[in-house]
């Protein structure tokens, strides 16, 4: 197969691999592409989950608003500043702030001010532009996105979850739409954010054809960053006993998705996501071997960490990062923002 010019049929074939020899060939090709386009460095972002209060009721998600069993919490600006300082101390030059979706004016201003403070307080000789800040706060108006961008965030993560509109409709209540999600991604791009998206893998009714379309969507929308993970049914949601793919198969399918996405998109950043680790302690290492190049160690304070309960098996403690990754030929890129080559090359055009 000519990996440099993949057709949709090729993508479907790669995503359907069962033969271990073909699997290893995909892994090698993905790694080669990664090294050529991005290098062997693994970019680090400290992840803080600011709050699990959410206005949405996504059928798969453990922090959906109807889950009365979820203990709700909010971190303060001081908490966020502490995590920012922890990132600086650990040599993570970037941070990700994630939270449930809230549209109230108080939250929007809170986040705006927190972003300004984090930028200000982390700017130093060592970090002349402060910490790189990624936010992941759901769907908002363009005006809100602009305010947070002006306040200092320069990357935004908003998963599309699936690009099959019928499947999207099954996963979400009627007030959410695939169209609005795509529009939000375009608004973010217009403002100047580096844009990240991604999908869940192993959803009930999801086909390999859907997954191939997901990759083609990432390409068509000129996405800079990808985060994909296996779907893990949560007991306190309407999808608790859905006929999702068995977890091991979802893990395997996710690795094939990561490898294939690396081959098709080439120079984007791809995260080794936490959901992989919920299935297998080595899950994130496997993702790195299939062409992922971003790790987001969990730095949410341990007093509330267990309450950001998107899916079962999510770590309830902060991640300790070793000096060296477990995979050979790779290193952590300490003290680097680690923007995607794809985004950096666009700026130079
Ligand atoms: N299994 C796997 N991933 C999930 N997410 C939410 N619920 C689940 C689940 N049950 C993911 C979604 C969301 C991200 C924050 O977490 O993709 O975008």
Q: What does this protein look like?
A:
The protein has 349 residues and is α/β, with parallel strands linked by helices. It has helices at 8-15, 20-37, 77-90, 105-122, 142-150, 165-171, 178-191, 208-220, 247-265, 274-279, 283-289, 302-305, 341-348; strands at 41-51, 94-99, 132-136, 155-157, 194-197, 200-201, 225-227, 229-230, 269-271, 294-295, 331-332. Strands 1, 2, 3, 4, 5, 7, 9, 10 and 11 form a nine-stranded parallel sheet that branches. The chain has a two-stranded parallel ribbon with strand order 6-8. The radius of gyration is 19 Å and the shape is globular. The model has no long low-confidence stretch (mean pLDDT 96). The structure holds 5'-deoxyadenosine. 5'-deoxyadenosine binds next to loops. 5'-deoxyadenosine (5AD) binds at residues 60-61, 159, 161, 200, 229, 231-232, 234, 275, 310-311.
Kindly list the characteristics that best describe this protein:
single chain; 349 residues; alpha/beta; 9-stranded parallel beta sheet; two-stranded parallel ribbon; 11 strands; 42% helix; 12% strand; binds 5'-deoxyadenosine
